[in-house]
Write a structure and sequence with these properties.
heterodimer; A: 290 residues; mainly alpha; 62% helix; globular; B: 257 residues; alpha/beta; Rossmann fold; six-stranded mixed β-sheet
């Protein structure tokens, strides 16, 4: 007899409201990991419901509601204009508004995802402790709930690029950029969320890290204007190559260094894999430690 | 493996084989203690541990109403958590046949900002119940909870009684093979409690497996035909509910509530 899989019972479709199902056997025993990659499609529905909840809750009892999606990046854009364009007078070689908006589309998504994602297990502690809800769903849903933020800023970048005549046909590649962004954000969020179950320091550090982070990636300024040690430091940030690649896709005549892109791709792969390994390893004890 | 059939012809719903669970006690180790342990400095201590379950064996047959009694800390909740799949044992194994619907805490998993109906959908999908089934059962849930007029209100405005009625309604109206109730009838009023007991009995009559935990021995004897008595993580007694409850009462002189 082949070994029954843990939690496979969810695949047994209920034939009707209170119909007895065909019992699917699962064996619960001490294992290091019980979640496998092939289980993910099964968790789709609950991830969708959680993502919808995370998005709805963000704007409940707020008058402006989803309009905040527009205001937040707009305010950051205004601040960038004052700091980088007027004060530091950066010259990205392309219209600064396009340059900054593409950077902001990546950053706003990353920031929004991390704010909910890092604390997603703690804020759902009742679900983690008392229901068999797949824990993988919590950080994933937090990231999906941030997709509207990404869509709004990316659309704005596209529109401004088209208006300034700099929109590149490579913009058709944007799904690749989104997949990359998603993998990187998921990896970081999964790491932060799984460690935060034990070490709340993560949550204390998050606002500070995000505040610093926006300056440690070429979101508002061009990488090549840094020069020297500072540039090499910023190039270590996995977001750097991603932001540069997104600009290259969106804007014609924008030049990027393949070395930076490749380095970022490699670190993204490492972070996503580490996130998966760490999350699935700690997942079995989350209900006990939270 | 015996293909889920033990005790002759009756199919098995849940079985535990030398199931054990050990918790590490206290807060997690501070950085300094961790360094001490890693460097094997003197003064490094292994944290104390608690055996919540020790070598627990039992088999629940399909369609049985099965009760767990024991004092606080006897391991009842740990056992149910393992059954529900929220935590793993540290030894032994448990075999579960079919979908489990656990009600381990009233209002667990409800989000205050979401409406009653949205929370029902959330809870149902967290159990892996398909959306169509949730939509189908929504009216049954709201009428069982007597909350038809409140299903579009955020549950943060619900009273605790309304919350527990909604919790119960979900548990009673969604399809599963094994229903698990952990000490959840304590917070609702007598009238609703009576209805819940009736509903649990109905589930039992329909052939569902029910696992029921309560400090009220009266409720346990009303619902269950078979009871296990846990004492400090070990099975003290396993048998018909009358026998085990009599023995348990004799030991603890606990007054009926």
């Amino acid at each position: 007899m082949n070994r029954p899989e843990l939690r496979d019972y969810t695949s047994a479709e209920a034939s009707g409201p209170l119909e007895l199902e065909l019992p699917v056997v699962r064996v619960i025993r001490p294992v290091k990991r019980r979640v496998r990659l092939r289980h993910l499609p099964r968790d789709g529905p609950v991830i969708r419901v959680l993502a919808a909840r995370d998005f709805k809750v963000k704007y409940k009892q707020s008058v402006l509601g989803p309009l905040w999606l527009v205001f937040q990046p707009l305010a950051l854009l205004a601040a960038f204009f004052v700091a980088f364009r007027n004060l530091a007078d950066v010259q990205p070689g392309i219209p600064y508004s396009v340059f900054a908006l593409v950077g902001l589309s990546v950053w706003a998504f990353f920031q929004a995802s991390m704010i909910i994602g890092a604390s997603s297990l703690i804020s759902n502690s009742m679900l983690v402790r008392f229901t068999p809800c797949p824990r993988f769903a919590f950080p994933t849903a937090a990231i999906l709930a941030s997709l509207p933020t990404w869509a709004v800023t990316t659309l704005a970048a596209g529109v401004v690029a088209a208006a300034t005549g700099t929109l590149s046909p490579r913009a058709l590649l944007w799904p690749l950029g989104l997949v990359w962004l998603f993998m990187l954000t998921w990896g970081v969020a999964a790491l932060a969320a799984s460690f935060s179950v034990r070490y709340r320091d993560i949550l204390a550090a998050m606002p500070f890290l995000l505040q610093v982070g926006v300056f440690l990636a070429p979101i508002g300024y061009p990488l090549n204007q840094l020069g020297g040690a500072a540039q090499r430091l910023v190039e270590l940030n996995p977001l750097t190559g991603l932001v540069e690649a997104c600009r290259w896709m969106m804007v014609s005549g924008y030049h990027v260094s393949p070395r930076v892109i490749c380095f970022s791709l490699a670190t993204t792969a490492i972070i996503a894999l580490a996130g998966w390994r760490v999350f699935t390893r700690l997942e079995t004890t989350m209900a006990d430690n939270i | 493996m015996s293909a889920g059939r033990e005790n002759g012809a009756r199919p098995v719903a849940v079985s535990a084989r030398s199931l054990s669970k050990r918790y590490r006690l206290g807060e997690h180790r501070s950085l300094q203690q961790t360094v001490n342990v890693v460097l094997r400095r003197p003064g490094a201590t292994t944290p104390p541990s608690l055996d919540a379950l020790v070598d627990v064996n039992f088999t629940v047959n399909r369609g049985e109403a099965f009760g767990l009694v024991g004092t606080n800390g006897s391991g009842k909740s740990t056992l149910l958590q393992i059954l529900a799949g929220t935590t793993l044992p540290t030894g032994g194994e448990m075999e579960v046949h079919g979908r489990v619907l656990p009600l381990l805490a009233v209002g667990a998993g409800f989000h205050g900002e979401l409406t009653g109906a949205e929370n029902v959908t959330l809870f149902g999908s967290s159990l892996g119940i398909p959306r169509e089934v949730i939509a189908q059962r929504m009216d049954a849930v709201s009428s069982f909870a007597e909350l038809e007029r409140h299903m579009d209100t955020p549950v943060k405005r619900f009273s605790s009684g309304m919350l527990s009625r909604l919790s119960f309604a979900i548990a009673m109206q969604f399809p599963a093979d094994v229903y698990v109730f952990d000490e959840v009838l304590a917070v609702v009023d007598g009238e609703f409690q009576g209805r819940c007991i009736d509903e649990i009995k109905r589930l039992h009559r329909e052939g569902r497996t029910v696992v029921f935990v309560s400090h009220s021995l009266d409720q346990v004897s009303q619902v269950c035909d078979r009871v296990i008595w846990l004492e400090r993580g070990r099975v003290e007694r396993d048998g018909s509910s009358d026998q085990v409850l009599d023995a348990y009462e004799w030991r603890h002189h606990s007054p009926e509530t």
